[in-house]
Specification:
The chain is mainly alpha-helical and 196 residues long. Among the domains are: 48-113, no CATH class; 114-149 and 159-191. The protein contains 6 helices and 5 strands. The protein has helices at 6-17, 64-70, 86-95, 99-112, 115-143, 165-190, and strands at 42-45, 48-53, 56-60, 149-151, 157-159. The strands form 2 sheets. A 3-stranded antiparallel beta sheet has the order 1-2-3, with no helix packed on it. The longest helix has 29 residues, at 115-143. The chain starts with 5 loop residues before the first helix and ends in a 6-residue tail after the last helix. 3% of the residues are buried. The model has no long low-confidence stretch (mean pLDDT 85).
Length: 196
């Protein structure tokens, strides 16, 4: 059984009673001078931003909001079930509830006859996100094409930035054709048409 030291017990008593800044032990000789901070106060020290929350000094980071978004609770907010399985965790990241709640949601949609419509809308939304990402990647690459220099194995610098305007237009056209063919394929799959 783990034993707690007296100063840790005193610290917890101080936090519970609201005396967050009280000492937990006495010492002599060295005295560190700290400015008294209040609950919710934000200050900068040693290049870091600090705050006091519930009587505890905490470091505020740039990634604090991102950390909150990816944090998975111990139990499902909808049903209270444990989120200790990877399938439950994946569903929580997607829909903010566990796999059991998602199954119940989909079961209710099937009972009402709305499942197919919901699934098609979900697939179309996913395809739209994918298309946006691909277009962004293509545009980033296409805009950097004029500054492309490559060094061969022999050490020679090759300049590939001198593409003609016809070649650039051909690249754009082929990319658009590829996106359109993927969209057409997705719609065929949604409509239940068989592929050759």
């Amino acid at each position: 059984m783990k034993q707690f030291s007296k100063d840790k017990i005193q610290r917890m008593r101080n936090i519970v009673s609201g005396n967050h800044g009280d000492k937990t032990k006495t010492s002599s000789g060295y005295r560190k001078y700290n400015k008294k901070r209040r609950e919710g106060e934000v200050w900068e020290e040693d290049g870091k931003t600090w705050t006091i929350k519930n009587g505890i000094r905490q470091n505020k980071t740039k990634l604090g909001e991102a950390r909150k978004k990816i944090k998975i609770p111990l139990s499902c907010p909808s049903c209270g079930g444990k989120l200790n399985n990877s399938a439950h965790k994946k569903m929580y990241r997607l829909y903010s509830h566990c796999l059991n709640c998602q199954n119940l949601f989909e079961h209710n949609l099937r009972a009402k006859g709305l499942y197919k419509e919901w699934m098609e809308n979900t697939i179309r939304d996913n395809f739209g996100s994918w298309t946006t990402k691909q277009e962004s990647r293509f545009n980033n690459w296409f805009n950097s094409i004029d500054s492309n220099h490559y060094i061969t194995e022999s050490g020679e610098v090759e300049d590939w930035s001198k593409l003609t305007s016809e070649t650039k237009e051909d690249l754009k056209r082929r990319f658009k054709e590829w996106i359109d063919s993927e969209k057409e394929l997705t719609e065929k799959l949604l409509n239940g048409e068989k592929q050759c």
